[in-house]
Structure formats: C-alpha cells, structure tokens
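Priority: medium. Attachment 1 of 2:
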C-alpha cells in the first residue's frame, strides 16, 4: 500500500509540531526540514520522522529535502518577511523542479491534508 511522504517546513514551531504529530498518527511518512539537529529539536519532534538539515532560504538544501516527497506543508514563520518570502519562493520553485504537486500553507486553504 502506498503511503505518501509529507515534508513539513516549519516543523519545530507550535503549528508545525501539531501537524507532524497528526501526520504520524494518521500513518503518513513524515520528513522535516530543520535548521538545527540539536537534541532539543530531535526530542521535540520525536521518532518516526526523517530529518533534512537545511534552510528554506537555501534552495539546494530545500531541493534535497523534497526528494521523494509527495506533499509539502509550509507552516514556517519568521519575524523577517523577506526571509519568509524567499523561503516560499524557493518552495514553489522546488515544487516545479521536483514535480511535487500537492502543497499546503497554513493560511492558504480550508481543505484538509488529512
């Protein structure tokens, strides 16, 4: 049986942690892009998650994180609007380059990923 892999960008934030936990409970394979592989980060996200180290503003690390991903959830937020915009632009570009077709942003839709 096919089980989609979902990449969560912004997984260490409050909303991201909730999404990661719900995805895991519903049987999805979950990947996360994190800027830190510290013990605190790993403990918060728990087991059952694949980690990619990188940053949404670095296109190459984002592209690597999206390899073999079926869906992307973007819930990253920052106090720097330019940084968030660059991250979103990179995600949209990587979606095209990897032919990943399902994308969701926290503010964008009322449709359920689950």
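Attachment 2 of 2:
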């Amino acid at each position: 049986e096919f089980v989609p892999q979902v990449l969560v960008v912004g997984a260490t934030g409050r909303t991201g942690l909730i999404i990661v936990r719900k995805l895991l409970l519903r049987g999805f394979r979950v990947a996360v892009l994190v800027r830190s592989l510290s013990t605190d980060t790993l403990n918060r996200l728990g087991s059952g998650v694949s980690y990619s180290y990188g940053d949404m503003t670095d296109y190459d690390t984002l592209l690597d994180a999206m390899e073999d991903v079926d869906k992307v959830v973007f819930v990253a937020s920052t106090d720097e609007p330019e940084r968030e915009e660059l991250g979103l632009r990179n995600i949209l570009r990587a979606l095209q380059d990897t032919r990943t077709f399902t994308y969701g942003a926290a503010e964008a839709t009322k449709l359920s990923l689950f």
